[in-house]
Request: fold
Amino acid sequence: MNDEIAAGAAGVFDPVRAGWTLVKPIGFGELVGPLWRRGDGRFGFVVEKKHLNFVEIVHGGMLATFADQAMGMTAQRATGSKPHATIELNIQFVDAIRLNEFVEAHCEVVRLTRAIVFMQCKIIVGTRTVATASGIWKIRGER
Reply:
């Protein structure tokens, strides 16, 4: 979970100081990131102004994108990097998230078959659950 020691001089969580690794941004990920990875199934991002809606809390679309990307990367690792695509994504918003907070996704594979990956994800800020998500990924044929 979030590590108070990892806060920088401005009080903003510093993922590097806390041992997180930057996820290489590709395509759409460049617009919503930066995203961070720590261990299997753990991802995070520091809330920036671009992530906020008009009432200055994280936009639901950002959380859906974050859950989709985090579970997708977890599914990719579980399948040995086979190509796959999201075929269903469900998300429940539980609490508001504000500027400069560090948001974590804890993802796990519920079931892996030859053709489908079932996933679930808990999105947290500190000790608060702020959203939950689940989804199904189709493992595609090799290119």
About this structure: Residues 4-139 form a domain with the Thiol Ester Dehydrase; Chain A fold (CATH 3.10.129.10). DSSP finds two helices and seven strands in the chain.
